[in-house]
Amino acid sequence: MRKLTILGATGSIGTSTLKVVAENPEQFEITALAAGSNVKHMVQLCLTWRPKYAAMFDLKAANELRAELRNLNLNTEVLAGVEGMCQLASLDEVDSVMAAIVGAAGLLPTMAAVKAGKRVLLANKEALVMSGQLFIDAVQKYGAELLPVDSEHNAIFQCLPESVQTTLGHCQLESHGIDKILLTGSGGPFRYTDVNELQTVTPKQAIAHPNWSMGPKISVDSATMMNKGLEYIEAKWLFNCNKEQLQVIVHPQSVIHSMVQYKDGSVLAQMGEPDMCTPIALTMSYPERISAGVSHLDFTKVGELSFIQPDFQRYPCLKLAIEACYLGQHATTSLNAANEIAVDAFLNKGLNFTDIAVVNELVLKKASSGLSQLDEHCLESLVEVDRMARLQAEEIVRARLS
């Protein structure tokens, strides 16, 4: 029986992970759960799963959870802050760590799991966006096992030979007959909207994804296709791609989750219902397969499959991410930080939808000119890059809102 820590237990990936566990109770045991500040949800999870440990990123929330569990006579030990999450990620008795904390907050706990040599189920793309080579080298150094959870990267993973699957980050695609990785994306809810109308998009409209059920931040990123841009950067590191080996294609139906094109003209595609339980189940059970509780794809009902070249005028954030990918680690770290600030301002403070790209571009320009001297191979330096970029983004947001 595999023992599991879930970082981001109250989010959409955490919820789907627990569904897979419930589908296979004889194979998995929940040892630890970690979340941000949702005490009410975490109390329910602790009542259901009786984990040995729980952690809340927010210190006040941790104290509230501790009191609630004490009143319920649950003996779950509650930890707090990033230190508590790192501790749960590196527990000796845990085999696998689901790294599903959204955003930069997930970097340090995910790295803790890597350094503890765990099977890391990577749903936090920001870990690679922010630390790239440093993260990949740490996986190799500490003997961790890295398995991608994002539906696109998981699809690519499934279409690769085993010799590549087991050497992520250091594989040589060309020597395995691989010509190109085709990274698909739905295009979000505005792929057919007049570009001139995007300025008036509301948060409610932006989070209404046509295919996937995700949290608000990731849903907005899907609408701007920044999510695909971050996935592009993640794919570059996971599969050791050069620019000619990686291409983004808009696929509105989200039936094909990504493809691998081989030199002989063959293209292997992974297909399925748009349900995150499928890739999660594979990472939890690899190299075997288990039930994910997901309906089989009915090809008689799929209908037409279409593919579109991404329009960078519609999706400037995607263009920025692709450019940042080849500028250096300071650029991708800064872009990710700026985007988190801009998306939060859009969701909560009234920033225009199209201003998300404006904020991101301005911070990226500053990063390219002023932050490149920082050490990309030092985690503390990358955290500092993240901090500085956030301050710059907040200043730009204030100016846009004034």
Features:
seven-stranded parallel beta sheet, 17 helices, four-stranded mixed beta sheet, globular, 402 residues, 11 strands, alpha/beta, 48% helix
Structure description:
By secondary structure, this protein is α/β, with parallel strands linked by helices. It is 48% helix and 15% strand. It has 17 helices and eleven strands. The chain has helices at residues 12-23, 39-49, 59-71, 81-89, 107-115, 126-142, 151-158, 162-165, 203-206, 216-224, 226-238, 277-285, 299-302, 316-325, 329-348, 355-370, 379-401, and strands spanning 2-7, 28-35, 53-56, 77-80, 96-99, 119-122, 145-148, 178-185, 246-250, 256-262, 267-271. The strands form two sheets. Strands 4-3-2-1-5-6-7 form a seven-stranded parallel β-sheet, sandwiched between helices. A four-stranded mixed β-sheet has the order 9-8-10-11, covered by helices on one side. Strand 3, helix 3 and strand 4 (77-80) form a beta-alpha-beta unit. Helix 15 (329-348) runs antiparallel to helix 16 (355-370). The longest helix has 23 residues, at 379-401. The chain is globular and about 55 Å long.
